[in-house]
Amino acid sequence: MSDFQHISVTQTAELLADGKVVIADIRDEQSYAAGHIAGAYHLTNGSLSGFMQQFEFDQPVVVVCYHGNSSQGAAQYLAQQGFEQVYSMDGGVESWRQQQPVVSGDGA
């Protein structure tokens, strides 16, 4: 698969509850620290190599950003790198925040 798919907040929450997905948050450090999805991996240019070593290519990945726009490009990139199930979450963390809890701090 060399393309990503769109996924809703509800679908993402269901996958996360089942423990079947990695959330890759591509927002800047301050935004991530201010509030992110519990367990999200802060994916930056600097952490990309570690991300690709840590997770298997058959592990589903949901990329999130602020509003669901920038995540599409990052999701496409991960799909092109060989990740088999890549999603861009529609509405981003702002939409998630309206429906689900977020955690703050540098850690997951």
From TrEMBL:
<feature type="active site" description="Cysteine persulfide intermediate">
    <location>
        <position position="65"/>
    </location>
</feature>
<dbReference type="InterPro" id="IPR001763">
    <property type="entry name" value="Rhodanese-like_dom"/>
</dbReference>
<protein>
    <recommendedName>
        <fullName>Thiosulfate sulfurtransferase GlpE</fullName>
        <ecNumber>2.8.1.1</ecNumber>
    </recommendedName>
</protein>
<dbReference type="Pfam" id="PF00581">
    <property type="entry name" value="Rhodanese"/>
</dbReference>
<keyword id="KW-0963">Cytoplasm</keyword>
<feature type="domain" description="Rhodanese">
    <location>
        <begin position="17"/>
        <end position="105"/>
    </location>
</feature>
<dbReference type="InterPro" id="IPR036873">
    <property type="entry name" value="Rhodanese-like_dom_sf"/>
</dbReference>
<keyword id="KW-0808">Transferase</keyword>
<dbReference type="GO" id="GO:0004792">
    <property type="term" value="F:thiosulfate-cyanide sulfurtransferase activity"/>
</dbReference>
<comment type="similarity">
    <text>Belongs to the GlpE family.</text>
</comment>
<dbReference type="GO" id="GO:0005737">
    <property type="term" value="C:cytoplasm"/>
</dbReference>
<comment type="function">
    <text>Transferase that catalyzes the transfer of sulfur from thiosulfate to thiophilic acceptors such as cyanide or dithiols. May function in a CysM-independent thiosulfate assimilation pathway by catalyzing the conversion of thiosulfate to sulfite, which can then be used for L-cysteine biosynthesis.</text>
</comment>
<dbReference type="InterPro" id="IPR050229">
    <property type="entry name" value="GlpE_sulfurtransferase"/>
</dbReference>
<dbReference type="InterPro" id="IPR023695">
    <property type="entry name" value="Thiosulf_sulfurTrfase"/>
</dbReference>
